[in-house]
Write a structure and sequence with these properties.
122 residues, alpha+beta
Length: 122
C-alpha cells in the first residue's frame, strides 16, 4: 500500500524546493563581479604573441612567432623591454614560467625534432 501525499503538501514541498534552490543560487553568486584591466602584450614584428608566466617583479615570459614562422621565447622587463630567448641550436624555444629570482623555465626543440626542457639563469 502506497502512502499518498495530499495535493496541498506536494505543492508546498515543490515551493520549498524552488525557494531553497533560489536561495542557494543567490548565496553562491558574488555580490559584485570583479572587474579586470587587460593589457595587450605584442612583441614588435611578431605574427603572434603568448604570455605564459609572471613573477612578483612583474617580469612576464612567453613566446612569439616571427614573420618566418619561427617560435621564440621572450621576457618582458618593466613592461617596455622585450628580450628574445633562444636556446643555442634550437629550432624553436618557448618560455613558460619565471620565478622571483628571474630564473626562466621552458622548452625547446632541437634540430632532430626532440623536445627538451630548460632553465635559464639571469
Amino acid at each position: 500500500m502506497k502512502a499518498k501525499i495530499p495535493l496541498g503538501h506536494s505543492t508546498l514541498l515543490l515551493r520549498i524546493a524552488v525557494l531553497l534552490g533560489a536561495v542557494l543560487i543567490l548565496l553562491c553568486t558574488p555580490a559584485a563581479a570583479r572587474a579586470f584591466t587587460f593589457t595587450t602584450i605584442d612583441v614588435p614584428g611578431a605574427t603572434s604573441t603568448e604570455a605564459s608566466g609572471i613573477n612578483p617583479e612583474g617580469q612576464i615570459v612567453g613566446d612569439y612567432t616571427d614573420a618566418a614562422g619561427t617560435l621564440h621565447g621572450f621576457v618582458l622587463l618593466r613592461g617596455t623591454t622585450f628580450i628574445t630567448i633562444d636556446v643555442p641550436g634550437a629550432t624553436s624555444t618557448e618560455a613558460s614560467g619565471i620565478n622571483p629570482e628571474g630564473q626562466i623555465v621552458g622548452n625547446y626543440t632541437d634540430a632532430a625534432g626532440t623536445l627538451h626542457g630548460f632553465v635559464a639563469m639571469p
